[in-house]
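Hello again,

I reread your note about wanting to compare the complex against the isolated chains. To keep things tidy I'm splitting this into two emails, and this first one only covers the full assembly. Below are the input lines as submitted, including protein chains and any nucleic acid or small-molecule components. They are followed by the predicted structure of everything together. The single-chain runs will come separately.
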Amino acid sequence: MTTYILTAGDARIGRLVELAAGPTTVVVVGDGRTAAAVARTPGVDRVLHVEPAPGAPAETCAAAVAGLVADAAPALVLAAPRPADRVLAGAVAARLAAPVLTMVRAVEVADGGVEVTRSVFGGIAERTERVTGPAVVVTDGGTAADGGTGADGGTAPVVDAGAVPADPAVTVTATRVAERAAVDLSRAPRVVAAGRGVRRQEDLALVEGLAAALGAEVACSRPLAEGVGWLPHDRYVGVTGQHVAPELYVAAGVSGQLQHVVGARGAGTVVAINTDPGCPYFAEADYCVVGDLYEVLPALTAALAAPGPGAAS
Ligand SMILES: Cc1cc2nc3c(=O)[nH]c(=O)nc-3n(C[C@H](O)[C@H](O)[C@H](O)COP(=O)(O)OP(=O)(O)OC[C@H]3O[C@@H](n4cnc5c(N)ncnc54)[C@H](O)[C@@H]3O)c2cc1C
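Full-complex prediction:
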């Protein structure tokens, strides 16, 4: 039983290697430097390096990659949920006539089949599924902590699987760099999140003030990022947004719909501030503050700024 891992030029595959069963081959669609870095990841037995045409996206190599995978007939093909990897994985799966299983939290290979546990219904439930035959599994992995530093000590051979000529059916017409938050919210030790209880963009200063006093990062619910665009897309928390696990999560003017709450389930202590005593967040939070965020946030910020009882006068 072998496992294949697909990466569209990103060397951070450490967690995928942990999930692999049996000898592990990584197909790197990208440059030689990435292939060399992947080869130094412990647990990788072999690297197949596929070189796309200059400027061509990784999925233009899908037919070549599918050929390599089909030759080995692995039961399990893994990919990280990064955008380019997902596109490559889908295009390869289509050519293999294999299913793509996304949002996978755990995977096991046994009796020639693949059993996965997936998040379903927006992350509020898990379902276990069994697939016989090859399966392409997109699972957690590919974070900054996932290796790929090139200093990890593995020594897998790199096999040059060849350059793939440009695909005339695919033309890159524009490239736009995605706006990114300056921080990785998933690693923030404290987070203050703003919801629709904040009435105007300039009022976010109240949230920023408390965040500064706590040494926290600012986050928000989806409507503030995707609806009115007051904060960047990668500042919103939830099932379709960031997953955070801070020691302290303060949700101000956030109602507590499941799609938001799921993204902060890893938080240690949750404080919800809301004018509505019946808001769903109060069923989840450790501390429930029934009050107007326009009064509560400045009061908390001032209290944090005030010298403690033991401070010298
Ligand atoms: C497929 C799908 C995926 C989704 N994914 C996400 C996701 O990843 N993340 C996400 O956040 N949402 C997501 N949503 C949207 C989600 O369902 C909610 O609509 C959203 O989370 C609500 O945001 P909110 O709590 O800020 O706003 P609201 O639900 O409008 O709540 C605002 C709250 O503020 C309170 N309030 C009002 N004024 C004040 C005040 N002055 N002081 C204190 N409290 C006040 C109100 O009582 C209310 O509880 C998703 C929806 C769908 C359908």
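For quick reference: Residues 122, 195-197, 221-223, 236-241, 253-255, 257, 259-260, 263, 273-276, 279, 292-294 surround flavin-adenine dinucleotide (CB under 6 Å).

B.
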